[in-house]
Amino acid sequence: MIWIWLALIVLVVLLDMATSNILYSWMALGFLAAVILAVMEVSVPTQVITACIVGSITFMIGSLISRKYLKRSIDATPILTDKILGTIHTADTEIREETQYKINGIYWLLRNEGTPIMPGEQFRIVGIKNNRLYVAKEN
Prior knowledge:
Elements: H1 2-19, H2 25-39, H3 44-73, H4 80-84, E1 88-90, E2 98-103, E3 106-112, E4 122-129, E5 132-137
Parallel strand pairs: 3-5
Antiparallel strand pairs: 1-4, 2-3, 4-5
């Protein structure tokens, strides 16, 4: 039974390495407790129960520690829409009510609810709703 517990320890460590989650490795502590019991020749049902109890407790504690660490150490990176909101662009083509337009290499559907924007004029991205960028002529 020792080999099964050791294989489970290796499996959860490999799973965490593959997902970079570092959450399942806490279960390995429960499997380690079962290895110790197996060396002491304790019955298999006791090993399984111990692995489940110790693994569950360390999993919950590890989850709390991981969340606390992640909230403290990882900076919030703005998503693409946050990066382009409020930016000013120069129109290449006329933008009346709705038109497809390429911004930063991505085609967007622009919605202009103000006066038409002529080629060479500047416009600002004022909002985003669904898959549309709302634009306004820059004065």
